[in-house]
Protein backbone atom coordinates (compact mmCIF):
# COMPACT_ATOMS: atom_id res chain seq x y z
CA UNK A 1 0.00 0.00 0.00
CA UNK A 2 2.88 2.34 0.76
CA UNK A 3 4.33 1.82 -2.70
CA UNK A 4 0.95 2.51 -4.26
CA UNK A 5 0.64 5.77 -2.32
CA UNK A 6 4.18 6.79 -3.27
CA UNK A 7 3.57 6.02 -6.95
CA UNK A 8 0.32 7.96 -6.93
CA UNK A 9 1.98 10.92 -5.29
CA UNK A 10 4.81 10.86 -7.82
CA UNK A 11 2.43 10.75 -10.78
CA UNK A 12 0.39 13.71 -9.57
CA UNK A 13 3.46 15.76 -8.76
CA UNK A 14 5.08 15.02 -12.12
CA UNK A 15 1.86 15.84 -13.97
CA UNK A 16 1.84 19.34 -12.48
CA UNK A 17 5.54 19.76 -13.33
CA UNK A 18 4.72 18.94 -16.96
CA UNK A 19 2.12 21.71 -17.02
CA UNK A 20 -1.13 19.88 -16.33
CA UNK A 21 -3.49 21.83 -14.10
CA UNK A 22 -4.89 18.74 -12.36
CA UNK A 23 -4.58 14.98 -12.18
CA UNK A 24 -7.09 12.45 -10.82
CA UNK A 25 -7.03 8.67 -10.82
CA UNK A 26 -9.82 6.10 -10.95
CA UNK A 27 -10.08 2.34 -11.14
CA UNK A 28 -10.29 0.92 -14.67
CA UNK A 29 -13.68 -0.73 -14.76
CA UNK A 30 -16.96 -0.81 -16.70
CA UNK A 31 -18.76 2.55 -16.69
CA UNK A 32 -22.11 1.19 -15.63
CA UNK A 33 -23.84 4.56 -15.20
CA UNK A 34 -22.74 5.80 -18.61
CA UNK A 35 -23.95 2.79 -20.64
CA UNK A 36 -27.67 3.66 -20.73
CA UNK A 37 -26.93 7.37 -21.26
CA UNK A 38 -24.71 6.70 -24.26
CA UNK A 39 -27.13 4.17 -25.70
CA UNK A 40 -30.05 6.60 -25.41
CA UNK A 41 -28.01 9.48 -26.88
CA UNK A 42 -27.12 7.40 -29.92
CA UNK A 43 -30.64 5.98 -30.27
CA UNK A 44 -32.03 9.50 -30.62
CA UNK A 45 -29.46 10.39 -33.29
CA UNK A 46 -27.81 13.10 -31.22
CA UNK A 47 -24.47 12.25 -32.83
CA UNK A 48 -25.73 13.56 -36.18
CA UNK A 49 -23.35 12.58 -38.99
CA UNK A 50 -20.67 11.62 -36.47
CA UNK A 51 -21.03 7.94 -37.30
CA UNK A 52 -17.78 7.13 -35.51
CA UNK A 53 -19.59 7.70 -32.20
CA UNK A 54 -21.54 4.51 -32.88
CA UNK A 55 -18.38 2.44 -33.22
CA UNK A 56 -16.65 0.54 -30.42
CA UNK A 57 -19.58 0.92 -28.00
CA UNK A 58 -18.13 -1.62 -25.56
CA UNK A 59 -14.65 -0.10 -25.65
CA UNK A 60 -16.06 3.34 -24.81
CA UNK A 61 -17.44 1.90 -21.60
CA UNK A 62 -14.63 -0.43 -20.52
CA UNK A 63 -10.96 0.64 -20.70
CA UNK A 64 -9.86 -2.95 -20.10
CA UNK A 65 -10.88 -3.59 -23.71
CA UNK A 66 -8.51 -0.86 -24.88
CA UNK A 67 -5.46 -1.71 -22.76
CA UNK A 68 -4.58 -5.26 -21.79
CA UNK A 69 -4.53 -5.68 -18.03
CA UNK A 70 -5.71 -2.11 -17.42
CA UNK A 71 -5.96 -1.30 -13.71
CA UNK A 72 -6.03 2.52 -13.51
CA UNK A 73 -7.25 5.48 -15.55
CA UNK A 74 -5.17 8.61 -14.96
CA UNK A 75 -7.17 11.68 -16.01
CA UNK A 76 -5.40 14.95 -16.69
CA UNK A 77 -6.56 18.50 -17.36
CA UNK A 78 -4.61 21.06 -19.41
CA UNK A 79 -5.72 24.68 -19.29
CA UNK A 80 -6.17 26.52 -22.61
CA UNK A 81 -7.94 29.70 -21.47
CA UNK A 82 -6.21 32.55 -23.35
CA UNK A 83 -5.14 35.79 -21.69
CA UNK A 84 -7.52 38.70 -22.28
CA UNK A 85 -5.10 40.46 -24.62
CA UNK A 86 -5.19 37.48 -27.01
CA UNK A 87 -8.95 36.99 -27.05
CA UNK A 88 -10.90 37.98 -30.15
CA UNK A 89 -13.21 41.00 -29.82
CA UNK A 90 -16.96 40.48 -30.04
CA UNK A 91 -17.35 42.57 -33.20
CA UNK A 92 -15.53 40.17 -35.53
CA UNK A 93 -15.81 36.52 -36.59
CA UNK A 94 -14.62 34.10 -33.95
CA UNK A 95 -13.09 30.69 -33.50
CA UNK A 96 -13.30 28.66 -30.31
CA UNK A 97 -10.59 29.55 -27.81
CA UNK A 98 -9.22 26.01 -27.76
CA UNK A 99 -8.04 26.45 -31.37
CA UNK A 100 -6.05 29.67 -30.91
CA UNK A 101 -2.67 27.98 -30.67
CA UNK A 102 -0.98 24.74 -31.69
CA UNK A 103 -3.23 21.72 -32.12
CA UNK A 104 -3.77 20.31 -28.64
CA UNK A 105 -3.46 16.70 -29.82
CA UNK A 106 0.28 17.19 -30.41
CA UNK A 107 0.90 19.29 -27.30
CA UNK A 108 -0.84 16.89 -24.93
CA UNK A 109 0.42 13.68 -26.54
CA UNK A 110 4.01 14.87 -26.03
CA UNK A 111 3.33 15.58 -22.35
CA UNK A 112 1.59 12.22 -21.85
CA UNK A 113 4.49 10.34 -23.40
CA UNK A 114 6.90 12.12 -21.06
CA UNK A 115 4.72 11.32 -18.05
CA UNK A 116 4.48 7.64 -19.01
CA UNK A 117 8.26 7.46 -19.55
CA UNK A 118 8.86 9.09 -16.16
CA UNK A 119 6.47 6.62 -14.52
CA UNK A 120 8.31 3.71 -16.10
CA UNK A 121 11.62 5.10 -14.88
CA UNK A 122 10.30 5.64 -11.34
CA UNK A 123 8.03 2.64 -10.86
CA UNK A 124 9.36 0.03 -13.26
CA UNK A 125 7.78 -1.88 -16.11
CA UNK A 126 4.38 -0.35 -16.85
CA UNK A 127 2.13 -1.07 -19.79
CA UNK A 128 -0.16 1.72 -20.88
CA UNK A 129 -1.53 3.95 -23.61
CA UNK A 130 -1.99 7.69 -24.03
CA UNK A 131 -5.37 9.04 -25.12
CA UNK A 132 -6.10 12.54 -26.40
CA UNK A 133 -9.59 12.80 -27.86
CA UNK A 134 -8.70 10.35 -30.63
CA UNK A 135 -9.94 6.99 -29.37
CA UNK A 136 -13.19 5.62 -27.91
CA UNK A 137 -12.66 6.96 -24.38
CA UNK A 138 -15.34 8.86 -22.44
CA UNK A 139 -13.03 11.59 -21.20
CA UNK A 140 -15.54 13.52 -19.11
CA UNK A 141 -16.89 10.40 -17.42
CA UNK A 142 -13.41 9.36 -16.29
CA UNK A 143 -12.46 12.86 -15.18
CA UNK A 144 -15.68 13.07 -13.17
CA UNK A 145 -15.06 9.65 -11.64
CA UNK A 146 -11.59 10.73 -10.57
CA UNK A 147 -12.87 13.84 -8.80
CA UNK A 148 -11.61 16.49 -11.22
CA UNK A 149 -15.03 18.10 -11.52
CA UNK A 150 -18.66 17.46 -12.30
CA UNK A 151 -20.38 17.28 -15.68
CA UNK A 152 -22.46 20.44 -15.96
CA UNK A 153 -25.79 21.12 -17.62
CA UNK A 154 -23.91 22.06 -20.81
CA UNK A 155 -22.23 18.60 -20.72
CA UNK A 156 -18.79 20.12 -20.08
CA UNK A 157 -16.67 19.09 -17.12
CA UNK A 158 -16.59 21.95 -14.62
CA UNK A 159 -13.96 22.30 -11.89
CA UNK A 160 -14.45 24.43 -8.76
CA UNK A 161 -12.04 27.36 -8.84
CA UNK A 162 -11.06 26.77 -12.48
CA UNK A 163 -14.16 26.55 -14.68
CA UNK A 164 -14.16 24.47 -17.85
CA UNK A 165 -11.70 25.92 -20.38
CA UNK A 166 -9.34 22.95 -20.43
CA UNK A 167 -8.58 19.79 -22.37
CA UNK A 168 -9.04 16.32 -20.87
CA UNK A 169 -6.64 13.45 -21.56
CA UNK A 170 -5.89 10.02 -20.12
CA UNK A 171 -3.21 7.49 -19.44
CA UNK A 172 -4.65 4.00 -19.03
CA UNK A 173 -2.10 1.80 -17.29
CA UNK A 174 -1.76 -1.73 -15.94
CA UNK A 175 -0.74 -0.82 -12.39
CA UNK A 176 -2.87 -0.38 -9.29
CA UNK A 177 -2.81 3.10 -7.79
CA UNK A 178 -4.71 5.00 -5.12
CA UNK A 179 -8.06 6.17 -6.44
CA UNK A 180 -9.90 9.44 -6.05
CA UNK A 181 -13.64 9.85 -5.56
CA UNK A 182 -16.20 11.94 -7.43
CA UNK A 183 -17.31 15.34 -6.16
CA UNK A 184 -20.84 16.73 -6.06
CA UNK A 185 -22.61 18.74 -8.76
CA UNK A 186 -22.56 22.50 -8.14
CA UNK A 187 -24.71 23.70 -11.06
CA UNK A 188 -27.62 24.25 -8.70
CA UNK A 189 -30.64 25.98 -10.27
CA UNK A 190 -28.56 27.87 -12.86
CA UNK A 191 -29.77 27.59 -16.47
CA UNK A 192 -27.54 30.22 -18.13
CA UNK A 193 -26.09 27.74 -20.62
CA UNK A 194 -29.52 26.45 -21.68
CA UNK A 195 -30.88 29.98 -22.02
CA UNK A 196 -27.91 31.21 -24.06
CA UNK A 197 -27.57 28.41 -26.64
CA UNK A 198 -28.84 29.94 -29.90
CA UNK A 199 -29.62 26.59 -31.54
CA UNK A 200 -31.21 24.99 -28.46
CA UNK A 201 -28.62 22.21 -28.63
CA UNK A 202 -28.90 21.75 -24.85
CA UNK A 203 -32.28 20.06 -25.08
CA UNK A 204 -32.59 19.60 -21.32
CA UNK A 205 -30.18 19.94 -18.40
CA UNK A 206 -27.18 17.64 -18.91
CA UNK A 207 -28.25 16.58 -22.43
CA UNK A 208 -26.64 18.13 -25.52
CA UNK A 209 -27.92 17.16 -28.95
CA UNK A 210 -24.64 17.15 -30.83
CA UNK A 211 -26.43 17.42 -34.17
CA UNK A 212 -27.75 20.88 -33.18
CA UNK A 213 -24.51 22.33 -31.80
CA UNK A 214 -22.72 25.17 -33.62
CA UNK A 215 -19.45 23.28 -33.12
CA UNK A 216 -20.94 20.31 -34.96
CA UNK A 217 -22.12 22.42 -37.89
CA UNK A 218 -18.85 24.34 -38.24
CA UNK A 219 -16.41 21.46 -37.66
CA UNK A 220 -17.91 17.97 -37.90
CA UNK A 221 -20.51 18.45 -40.65
CA UNK A 222 -18.91 18.13 -44.07
CA UNK A 223 -22.08 18.83 -46.09
CA UNK A 224 -23.81 22.16 -46.57
CA UNK A 225 -25.10 23.71 -43.35
CA UNK A 226 -28.92 23.49 -43.17
CA UNK A 227 -30.67 26.75 -44.02
CA UNK A 228 -32.97 26.44 -41.00
CA UNK A 229 -30.11 27.36 -38.67
CA UNK A 230 -29.23 30.43 -40.69
CA UNK A 231 -28.77 33.53 -38.57
CA UNK A 232 -28.30 31.49 -35.38
CA UNK A 233 -24.51 31.23 -35.32
CA UNK A 234 -23.83 34.79 -34.26
CA UNK A 235 -20.23 35.35 -35.36
CA UNK A 236 -18.87 31.84 -34.74
CA UNK A 237 -17.11 30.24 -37.74
CA UNK A 238 -15.18 27.44 -36.00
CA UNK A 239 -16.58 25.93 -32.84
CA UNK A 240 -18.51 27.87 -30.22
CA UNK A 241 -17.81 28.95 -26.63
CA UNK A 242 -21.20 30.43 -25.74
CA UNK A 243 -22.24 27.85 -23.13
CA UNK A 244 -18.84 28.19 -21.46
CA UNK A 245 -18.62 31.98 -21.72
CA UNK A 246 -21.92 32.38 -19.83
CA UNK A 247 -21.12 29.76 -17.17
CA UNK A 248 -20.62 31.53 -13.80
CA UNK A 249 -17.88 29.07 -12.87
CA UNK A 250 -15.69 30.39 -15.68
CA UNK A 251 -15.22 33.67 -13.86
CA UNK A 252 -12.52 31.68 -12.08
CA UNK A 253 -10.72 30.75 -15.33
CA UNK A 254 -7.08 31.82 -15.30
CA UNK A 255 -4.83 32.31 -18.36
CA UNK A 256 -2.88 29.25 -19.44
CA UNK A 257 0.90 29.07 -19.10
CA UNK A 258 1.50 26.96 -22.21
CA UNK A 259 3.58 28.83 -24.83
CA UNK A 260 2.36 26.49 -27.57
CA UNK A 261 -1.23 27.67 -27.06
CA UNK A 262 -0.32 31.29 -27.75
CA UNK A 263 -2.53 32.77 -30.47
CA UNK A 264 -1.16 34.08 -33.74
CA UNK A 265 -0.72 37.83 -33.15
CA UNK A 266 -2.82 38.74 -36.21
CA UNK A 267 -5.84 36.66 -35.23
CA UNK A 268 -7.53 39.16 -32.94
CA UNK A 269 -7.03 41.99 -35.46
CA UNK A 270 -8.99 40.38 -38.32
CA UNK A 271 -12.08 42.39 -39.23
CA UNK A 272 -15.21 40.80 -40.74
CA UNK A 273 -13.94 42.12 -44.08
CA UNK A 274 -10.60 40.37 -43.58
CA UNK A 275 -12.39 37.12 -42.81
CA UNK A 276 -14.59 37.53 -45.88
CA UNK A 277 -11.54 37.87 -48.11
CA UNK A 278 -9.31 35.31 -46.40
CA UNK A 279 -6.93 33.65 -48.83
CA UNK A 280 -5.54 30.16 -48.70
CA UNK A 281 -2.12 31.67 -47.96
CA UNK A 282 -3.42 33.64 -44.97
CA UNK A 283 -5.36 30.61 -43.74
CA UNK A 284 -2.16 28.56 -43.83
CA UNK A 285 -0.20 31.29 -42.04
CA UNK A 286 -2.77 31.84 -39.26
CA UNK A 287 -3.62 28.20 -38.65
CA UNK A 288 -0.42 26.39 -39.63
CA UNK A 289 -0.50 24.07 -36.61
CA UNK A 290 -3.99 24.85 -35.31
CA UNK A 291 -6.96 22.54 -34.85
CA UNK A 292 -8.72 24.82 -37.36
CA UNK A 293 -6.94 22.81 -40.05
CA UNK A 294 -9.43 20.07 -39.26
CA UNK A 295 -12.14 21.88 -41.17
CA UNK A 296 -9.70 23.04 -43.84
CA UNK A 297 -9.75 26.17 -45.95
CA UNK A 298 -12.85 25.04 -47.85
CA UNK A 299 -14.73 24.29 -44.64
CA UNK A 300 -13.80 27.58 -43.01
CA UNK A 301 -14.79 29.64 -46.06
CA UNK A 302 -18.09 27.73 -46.17
CA UNK A 303 -18.69 28.73 -42.55
CA UNK A 304 -17.74 32.36 -43.22
CA UNK A 305 -20.17 32.57 -46.14
CA UNK A 306 -22.89 31.05 -43.99
CA UNK A 307 -22.36 33.63 -41.24
CA UNK A 308 -21.77 36.46 -43.71
CA UNK A 309 -24.14 35.59 -46.60
CA UNK A 310 -22.84 38.46 -48.72
CA UNK A 311 -19.33 37.00 -48.57
UniProtKB/TrEMBL annotation:
The active site is at residue 133. GO terms for biological process: tRNA queuosine(34) biosynthetic process. Pathway: tRNA modification; tRNA-queuosine biosynthesis. Signal peptide: none annotated. Keywords: 4Fe-4S, Cobalamin, Cobalt, Cytoplasm, Iron, Iron-sulfur, Metal-binding, Oxidoreductase, Queuosine biosynthesis, tRNA processing. Pfam families: Fer4_16, QueG_DUF1730. [4Fe-4S] cluster 1 binds at residues 187, 190, 193, 247. Monomer. This is Epoxyqueuosine reductase. It comes from Hymenobacter nivis.
Amino acid sequence: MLLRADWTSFIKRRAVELGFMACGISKAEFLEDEAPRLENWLKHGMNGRMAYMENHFDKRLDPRLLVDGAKSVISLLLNYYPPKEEQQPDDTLKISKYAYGRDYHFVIKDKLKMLLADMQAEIGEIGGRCFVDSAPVLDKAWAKKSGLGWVGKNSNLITPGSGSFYFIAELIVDVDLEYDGAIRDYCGTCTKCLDACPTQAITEPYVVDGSKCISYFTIELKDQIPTEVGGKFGNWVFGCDICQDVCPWNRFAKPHQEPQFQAHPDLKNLTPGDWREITHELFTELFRQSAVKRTGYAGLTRNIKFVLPEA
